[in-house]
Amino acid sequence: MEIVLHDDPRAFAAAAGPLLQADPLRHTMALTVLDAMHRGGEPSAVLLTVQEAGEVTGAALRSPGRATLVSAVPARHAAVVERVLAEADPVADGAHGPVAEAEAFAAARVARTGCRVEPSMRTRLFALDVLAPPHGVPGRARLAEAGDIPLLGAWRRAFGAEAGHDKEHDPEGLVTRSLRLGAGEMLWEVGGTPVAQACAKPVIARASRIGPVYTPPEHRGHGYAAAVTAAASQWALDAGAERVVLFTDLANPTTNRLYPRIGYRPVHDAVELRFIA
After folding, report:
1. Euclidean distance between CA atoms 135 and 97, whole angstroms
2. Could you confirm whether domain 128-267 is CATH 3.40.630.30?
3. What are the percentages of helix, strand and coil residues in the chain, rounded to 5?
4. What's the pLDDT at 24?
5. Which of 51, 241, 245, 253 allows an S-S link to 236, with CB 3.0 to 4.6 Å?
6. Which neighbouring-strand residues pair with 247?
């Protein structure tokens, strides 16, 4: 087994891409983050692959200020990958992935350092089965434009603050990059006033992920979130996605009831874990 640390996202994408693309639902976070690095020029904190007999069998990556994405780190490699990453990326203090992979990685950190582990967020990945847009919701959907960036940036910041995981210091820049990369930033309008938004990530490996979805408090309770999510999902399908997915916060019963009503079905649970010395 060989552990390779990559300096160039293009080289990492060439090495790890086939592994990640083989299961685009399981690795949806890694694929979109890597796309932002590869095509969008976003910075990377660490890029790692595991190679066995000339084949890439594991991968991990992290962007600055975020948890390490470990969906492609098999449990059998967790200990060695955790040790190498700790040396190469000592400021990393968390891991995100499907429950089994994230917990195996965290267990390796605990065994090596004795640290504590706390869940930052527990989520559930849903995949679209048959889209069922809601009926009778007033308003219409439209794609966002450059003039909508300040509004979407403010809503990104509000979404992060409400979810308790706001790590984005430049939300307008995030929206600008999203539009530049070809995401479907969808707004729902009533009487010309935006009342909700949903973002469909660019199609990668024939899959697209919806998120974030946000409705300001004063506009909630009217079905706008379901309507704009359905519109963003349709945009992704029209853009060539064969699978459309989204994450829900398991602590939010509203969203976990909402998405099944428009055609989403659960796939697996995921977790973001924080390491505390």
Report:
1. 35
2. yes
3. 40, 30, 30
4. 97
5. 241
6. 125
* Sheet of strand 140-143, all strands in order from the earlier edge strand to the far edge: 2-5, 46-52, 55-62, 68-72, 94-98, 264-276, 116-128, 243-249, 207-214, 193-200, 184-190, 140-143
- Considering the chain, what is the average pLDDT of its residues? 96
Report the relative pairing of strands 68-72 and 55-62 from DSSP bridges.
Answer: antiparallel
Terminal Cα-to-Cα distance of the chain (whole angstroms): 30
Per-residue model confidence (pLDDT) at position 168: 60
Looking at residue 204, the DSSP 8-state letter turns out to be: B
Q: Is the entire prediction scored with pTM above 0.90?
A: yes
Q: Would you call the peptide bond into 212 cis, given omega within 30 degrees of 0 as the criterion?
A: yes
pLDDT at 183 over 70: yes
Query: Does pLDDT of 166 surpass 70?
Result: no
Choose among 185, 254, 262: nearest CA to 227: 262
Query: What type of residue is 244?
Result: V
Long-range contacts of 167-170 (CB under 8 A, 24+ apart): 167/65, 167/66
Q: Bridge partners of 147? A: none
d(CA 4, CA 20) in angstroms, rounded, equals: 16
Helices (H), the chain: 9-21, 28-38, 78-88, 99-113, 149-163, 171-180, 224-238, 253-261
Mean pLDDT of 35-48: 94
18-31 tens-digit pLDDT: 999 999 999 999 99
The length of the chain in residues reads: 277
Provide the pLDDT for residue 163. 79
> Exposure string (b/e) for 82-118, b if CB count within 10 Å is 16 or more?
bebbeeebeebebbbbbebbbbbbbebbeeeeeeebe
